[in-house]
Specification:
mainly alpha, 0% strand
């Protein structure tokens, strides 16, 4: 697995695959450990007990099966098995067994949390998992290279569109264009409320920051025109997600989108 040093930043398929698998294993490993820590709040008199959530399941036989799956012992087993599958992926790479189990178990986790635990990071996790599953299923038919190409393209398109749509929504929103929304969001962050003397309350500063985000997100298609641009874009994206974590505590976003970056850079490498 090597980089093509003839063209700086051009990512080969083996390197893209290995990077994606390692970043994904890290991301979902962190999520799984967080769920492990939340177990007391999901049992007895906790905030998220299954006895309440099961009432959302209308079909008796499905509800009965989920009752068995979400008992404390079975849920613990599910989390531990997920960790083993992730260790397997990190150590030996993805295969139909570990990717298939992770996909099914992730769907079970989404059911347990009524569709999402952490919004956007759950979306990106299922996107990367779907791309991995595409690669495994097509590869099982005998064309592994085609499978990985299809999986990488699937992940790259969804990751890029997530930025583009976010930027488009901000562009259409007058509060974002004026900078007002950014200041209000930061005022409600983990370090909020903002001091009355904060620079973010100054309209020019807030507008400058808001428009920097808007332009950067809306220009994401340009990342596919050049591998170096893709690397730079992903580096800025990583900084963006770190700032989101720093100001709002959303650590999952950093790792969930990090797992998609190899696909973006690989697709850009193949288009040039």
């Amino acid at each position: 697995m090597t980089l093509d040093w003839g063209t700086p930043f051009m990512l080969s398929m083996p390197m893209a695959i290995r990077s994606l698998e390692l970043f994904f294993a890290l991301s979902v490993g962190i999520q799984t450990l967080e769920f492990w820590r939340l177990r007391p709040a999901m049992q007895n008199e906790g905030l998220w007990v299954w006895a309440i959530q099961r009432q959302d399941i209308p079909t008796p036989w499905i509800r009965k099966g989920l009752d068995a799956l979400f008992t404390p012992n079975m849920f613990n087993t599910l989390l531990l098995t997920r960790l083993l599958a992730l260790v397997s992926m990190a150590a030996q790479g993805g295969n139909l067994l570990n990717v298939g189990f992770l996909f099914v178990s992730n769907l079970a986790m989404l059911v347990r949390w009524r569709g999402a635990f952490n919004g956007g990071s759950d979306f990106m996790t299922i996107v990367v998992l779907s791309g991995l599953l595409i690669a495994m299923l097509v590869g099982a038919s005998g064309d592994s290279e085609l499978g990985w190409r299809a999986g990488m393209i699937y992940i790259a398109i969804h990751a890029a569109s997530s930025y583009f749509i976010s930027g488009g929504i901000k562009l259409l929103n007058p509060e974002w264009r004026s900078g007002e929304a950014l200041a209000l969001f930061l005022d409600g962050g983990i370090y909020g409320p903002l001091s009355r003397l904060s620079l973010y309350w100054l309209r020019p500063v807030a507008m400058l920051c808001s428009w920097a985000f808007i332009v950067w997100e809306c220009l994401v298609p340009l990342a596919f025109f050049d591998a170096e641009l893709a690397v730079i874009y992903c580096a800025v994206a990583g900084l963006f997600h770190f700032l989101v974590f720093w100001y709002f505590g959303l650590n999952r976003f950093v790792f969930a989108w990090l797992a998609s970056f190899p696909a973006i850079i690989y697709v850009a490498s193949q288009l040039n």
